[in-house]
Amino acid sequence: MIHLLNIEEWAERYKDGDLSTAEIKALHTALDEDKVLNASFQQALQLQVLLSEKKSAAAIRESLKRAAAEHKKLAAGTPAPAMQIKTSFSARLRRYWKPLSAAAVIALFSSLLTYTFTRDNRQDQNQYTQLQKDIASLKHSQNQIISNMNKKGSGTHIDYPGDYSGSGFAITNDGLVATNYHVVEGADSVFVQLNDGSYYRANILTANPQSDLAILKITDKDFVFGKALPYMISKNPSALGQKIFSIGYPQDNVVYNEGYISSEHGYNGDTASYQLEITANPGQSGAPILDNNGNIVGIITGKKTNTNGTTYAVHANELLAMINNLNNLTKDQKINLNTKNRLSSSRPDQIKVLRDYVCAVRVYK
Amino acid sequence: MLVSKTSIYSDSELIEGLSRNNSQAIREIYRLYQSMLTKWIVTRGGAENDAYDIFQEGLMVLYEKAQKPEFALTCKLSTYLFAVCKRLWFKKLESSSQVSFLQEMEDEEDNDMEAQYHDDVSHHLEKEVNFQLLENAMSQLGEPCNGLLKAFYLEEKNMQDIAKQFGYTNAENAKTQKYKCLNRLKKLFFSSRKTT
Question: Which of A8, A68, A129 is closest, CB to CB, to B30?
Fold first, then answer.
């Protein structure tokens, strides 16, 4: 029997899903017949929900408090990062790179590998990861090893330029660089590092979070990448199955990858991007996707979290649209794009030329 | 312009982590956004601790929103959190003084998108009021009801342990008692809600 004296129990079992179909039916009949009972039941149910919400809210608040306390401690312990341009970066790196033991390299990689969520597989959906590299997390483990090595004397350590890094490539020979919006988002300062290790300060000329693209300008007025640009930015969308390749900076050396266009639409059916089957690693955000002739057809933006090879790249068209916008805004300083491909057909020869036009983008935040 | 650090985790991973009480995700959210909010609040005359309090409330708003089955975030996580935290901050200022900050609030909220989240904030504040009323009602119950209900509903102890702790002969007796207490709690809670 369902009555006012045991309605609390019924409400609790109803909320917990403990009732059989017959019992649910009986409950509904009883509630339909008796308005007072119904009102009492609704209140009992509200109370049940409120109690369980209070319990989970309290658990979350506990975790938040812990995280806040940790964050407070960290914030108090770390002084603001020094903002110095160190022109001898590559020389320093070379000097300290060798003494880094194998252990350092392992620590570096394992810290990358373990930096993932423990995920609930039942809720596994396709996830999207931006491929920007947080250098601070790597730097920490490295510094520890280096400081262990140097325990006796000098307190030297490697200075990475930037807290974050991505990749980019030349749009014009005089220092316009394309990269991802998310690479430079929130940047205090941005440096572009070339294949030879030299690096240059750059300004963010324009950025578009929708397409995840940004255009940088190297501030040095006399800067040139080399001879005239060897490639074009392709106007036409690439076809499904088109072989593509990419060069970018997931590490300090330029890295080559190849693959194919696996879908004309990107993440969640995004029509402004491609889905590619190509390996991409953190740090490769903003790297160019090139077709067989070495023309730019896309820019890497991110990858699917749970797979190795599925990568997304925004159409080169979106970049051209941004450049057009810039041209419309500043009539006196037109950006003239290269219209001639000077690359040979051999891939190693192509890369030999291309790598001077692809760069790492280092960002301080 | 509010700036943000970037993470190797996507926004949806972070939100999912928060809603499942994953400490790694929560730490990451703090790493990404707390300092910026602190900066924002300190430049508006708040203390560092205010910023931590507001951020915690902001995350609770997000947590509650993420519990809903129809939940979908239509903007970036950072955008959402800042809009919500700003709102909470102005609400707090308003409640602690006689002056209305509504004008400033509207000036600061530079687009309609931010105004969309006002509902989320009011729902959260309403919920907090209800939690407070519930707590008051529970303490009005007196012992053993208060302790019994807390042990079962908030601390998730099982009926055997509760029976032992509160001196009932068996779990069944404790259970009967629990429902009686719950009945009293219900009456207290809903009558206090009517009067406020």
Answer: A68
pLDDT digits over B95-105, tens only? Answer: 776 555 555 55
Q: Which of B50, B84, B117 is the last residue of a domain?
A: B117
**Domain assignment of residue B179, given as a range:** 142-195
Q: Which one of A49, A52, A60 would you mutate to disrupt binding with B, by most B Cβ within 10 Å of its Cβ?
A: A60
**Alpha-carbon span A154 to A159, nearest angstrom:** 15
- Each residue of A76-95: pLDDT tens digit? 765 544 333 333 444 444 44
Cβ distance of B34 and A44 shorter than 8 Å: no
Confirm whether B86 is domain-assigned.
yes
Tens of pLDDT, residue by residue over A172-219, are: 988 899 999 888 888 888 889 888 888 889 988 888 888 889 999 998
Q: Answer yes or no: do B113 and B16 share one domain.
A: yes
Say which CATH number the domain at B62 has. Answer: 1.10.1740
Residues B159 and B88 in one domain: no
